[in-house]
TrEMBL record:
PANTHER family: ENOYL-COA HYDRATASE, MITOCHONDRIAL, ENOYL-COA HYDRATASE-RELATED. One of its GO terms (biological process) is fatty acid beta-oxidation. This is Benzoyl-CoA-dihydrodiol lyase. It comes from the Eukaryota. InterPro entries: Benz-CoA_dihydrodiol_lyase, ClpP/crotonase-like_dom_sf, Enoyl-CoA_hydra/iso.
């Protein structure tokens, strides 16, 4: 079914016909989502996914479920996440997998799972789809983190059902997908009780779980199934969502990967330059006119411009993260008609109250956030013939630097390089810090955001874009090639570890939010701990897990 599937790469494209770990039963405006992991369905050899534990393959399916819930089943108002197995909700990330995985895979695995949880956590606000976690059986580690990302947690009151974050005492690591942060920032568990909770292996059950704010309600086991469905119906009835009767189909992405690693989609091209350790991502503008109205947009289904572009760019970023780890720099460029880009965008904003237009805008927000937290050097080149306008211009403010061509270039007949701002750059697509990218860029100079806003709709060539602070450098025909070459060579010579730390710190200026804490503070500590002998050494807790022998620790505090 998938075109040009290359052996030995991690493929993020899937659909329900390929699921091995999840199933969904639709009942009007309620969807029952069952986690029923195939023990023998691990992404790699060497471990079994026992007790509903998960690896990246399980989460790739979950991400697809959540995405299709929004586009293919917009009639859904409540999603009940539950286990398809007896006596266990989810045991979290598979420990054997973590113990045997390379550090880079563990880090990217945790990043993707964080993004997936953020996506269904925000589904109520963005799409009117509320998630309930119906916890029956053991719910530990990443299993409880799945529940924490839901909007409402119900726990059955019996002898075996509990919630737990046992990573510190059991594995010498941290909960890898936001558990600590959501316990304090979202659940608002008292600090000393959170300390106790995160220091015990057995977890917390029943009434104490509600008293400590770890779950929203506890229900006797004999009444649990009925209570869950009753709560789902109650939430659905109270939902203000004006749901359509049906959605659109998300057909498989057509993607071709060449022998040199370059990737081609319909609107996105990724050129791989292994010697320079970089990839150039070209975004193409629309190849036709914008739909006339929301009905025409719906008729196009997944072939509309921004939905197609978002899906392809999303897949390209994920592919590069997991399959091309030696490529340390991603360069963005665009080619096309900026006026057509703005026409496609105008249709979406003019119909923002239409379910499909809203979903496309929300998806673009998620793709931009995916770029924000990608641990590669990011640069954009605004060249002649580019179409960085409105929503596409957001890419320019997500990258670490932007270079722009200035004036005519000899032998280049393309339109002179320009940038066009729109309403898209001033609110609809906030970063994790809840600021726009321009507000973050001009954190100490808010008046410059207002100056830029006054230029909405204007075609800004290099001089004006540079004066407004929208680009880092503008170079003419004489200097362009040398300046770009010097930058690329310099960046390739730096330590990738130092660059990752520097870039992550510089990108998220301004206020701290739960999201920035998850991707910044918690992730940074986890990534460090993932390399420490106490966790991953020969006698570390991850390596000794399941042997009956506890990890041997170097007790020096660092």
């Amino acid at each position: 079914m998938w075109e040009n599937v290359v052996p030995d790469i991690i493929d993020f494209r899937t659909d329900p016909s390929h699921y091995r770990h999840w199933r969904v039963e639709y009942d009007g405006d309620i969807a029952n989502l069952y986690m029923d992991v195939d023990e023998d369905g691990g992404l790699f050899d060497g471990y079994q996914l026992k007790l509903n534990s998960y690896d990246l393959g399980v989460d790739i399916e979950l991400a697809d479920v959540v995405q299709r819930m929004r586009f293919e089943h917009p009639e859904v108002k409540v999603v009940v996440m539950q286990s398809g197995k007896d006596n266990v909700f989810c045991a979290g990330a598979n420990i054997r997998m973590l113990g045997g995985a390379a550090h880079a895979h563990k880090v990217n695995f945790c990043k993707f799972t964080n993004e997936t949880r953020n996506t269904f956590e925000a589904a109520e606000a963005d799409s009117g789809q509320k998630y309930i976690a119906a916890v029956k059986g053991a719910c530990a580690g990443g299993g409880y983190e799945l529940a924490l990302a839901c909007n409402h947690i119900m726990l059955t009151d019996d002898s075996s059902s509990s919630v737990a974050l046992p990573e510190v005492p059991l594995l010498a690591v941290l909960p890898g997908t936001g558990g600590l942060t959501r316990v304090t920032d979202k659940r608002k568990v008292r600090r000393d009780l959170a300390d106790v909770f995160c220091s015990i292996e057995e977890g917390v059950k029943g009434k104490r779980a509600t008293e400590w704010r770890l779950v929203d309600e506890v229900v006797p086991n004999s009444k649990f199934a009925d209570a869950v469905q009753a709560r789902a119906k109650e939430f659905a009835a109270a939902s203000p969502k004006n749901a359509p009767e049906k959605g659109i189909a998300l057909d498989p992405l057509n993607r071709t990967i060449a022998e040199d690693g370059s990737v081609t989609y319909s609107l996105v091209e990724v050129a791989v330059e292994r010697d320079g350790r970089r990839a150039t991502i070209t975004l193409h503008g629309p190849d036709g006119d914008a739909p006339a109205d929301a009905a025409a947009l719906t008729a196009l289904g997944d072939r509309s411009y921004f939905l197609r572009l978002a899906r392809e760019l999303d897949d390209a970023i994920l592919h590069l993260r997991l399959n091309e780890m030696e490529l340390g720099l991603l360069a963005f460029r665009s080619q096309g008609d900026a006026a057509k880009v703005l026409a496609e965008e105008k249709l979406l904003f003019d119909n923002a109250d239409h379910w499909l237009a809203n979903e496309i805008l929300q998806y673009w927000k998620r793709v931009m956030k995916r770029i924000d937290v990608t641990s590669r050097s990011l640069v954009a080149f605004v060249e002649n013939g580019s179409c960085f306008a409105g929503m596409l211009a957001e890419v320019l403010f997500a990258v670490d630097r932007t270079y722009m061509m200035e004036g005519d270039f000899e032998g280049d007949n393309r339109p002179v390089a320009s940038i066009t701002l729109s309403q898209a750059n001033f609110g609809p697509f906030p970063m994790a810090n809840d600021l726009t990218r321009l507000e973050t860029r001009f954190l100490g100079e808010p008046e410059r955001v207002e100056a830029a806003k006054e230029q909405i709709g204007e075609t800004l060539e290099a001089f004006d874009a540079n004066e407004l602070g929208l680009v880092t450098y503008a170079f003419d025909d004489v200097d362009w090639e040398d300046e770009v070459r010097i930058f690329l060579e310099e960046r390739a010579s730096f330590s990738p570890d130092a660059l990752t730390g520097m870039e992550a710190n510089l990108r998220f200026a301004g206020p701290e939010t739960m999201e920035t804490r998850i991707f910044g503070r918690l992730t940074a500590w986890q990534n460090w701990i993932f390399q420490r002998p106490n966790a991953v050494g020969e006698d570390g807790a991850l390596q000794r897990y399941g042997t009956g022998v506890r990890g041997q620790y170097n007790m020096q505090r660092v």
